[in-house]
Specification:
This protein has about 230 residues and is α/β, with parallel strands linked by helices. The chain has a single domain, classed as Rossmann fold. About 35% of the residues lie in helices and about 20% in strands.
Length: about 230
Amino acid sequence: MIHADFKCHFYFIRHGESVLNATPGDFYSGRDDDNPLTELGFSQARMLGTRLKNEGVTFDRVYSSSLVRATQTTRTMLDAMGEGDREFPKVDALIEQQVPGWRGVRRDEINSSENTAYMQHKGAHFVGPKGESMRVVQRRVSNWLEDEIIYNEGLAGRPVDLTIGMVGHGNAYRALFQYIMGFDERFLWRTALDNTSISRFVFDSGGWAVVTLNDSTHLRSVVSSV
């Protein structure tokens, strides 16, 4: 039976603080406006890696979004774990929600009362200018995860106990977590995911189980951008 002896421990990690996260006005970003980590972001990623090393976490597989803030977080995390030479796939399916028509626009303009009312009405099916709805993001991330791991015939049909690290983005993870947990879409925007936070899930013969959400205790007194 599929998944009879199958178990995966997932560490879903948000990238460290990016240049745009730290920019006053909090402009909307995306793929074509790919921005790197700040010095704080690199520090957060090092603390993340140090924590994982101290806790004895070893990843059987590591994946990163292909955006630079995620790949820099992954590389810095692995360096701190003592795995600086490790290669990892850079996955386009894991990138952040894309809304090119809002790229470079301040979030307070995007979140005007008129826009907010319309977005709340449409929910996960709202499509920003030339962009993706959260439902579309959910499909691309969850489809990749199922094809790559959950329903991968080379894994799911045999005894497996894996620990998998994935470094990605806030909205992409919010969409994925709704898919996993089945919560009302109104909670999509109430799920805090701090920079370099760890959200742990397990998938086994019983399906999905949540272990932790938004665990950023490794940052101690460092303030991270939400």
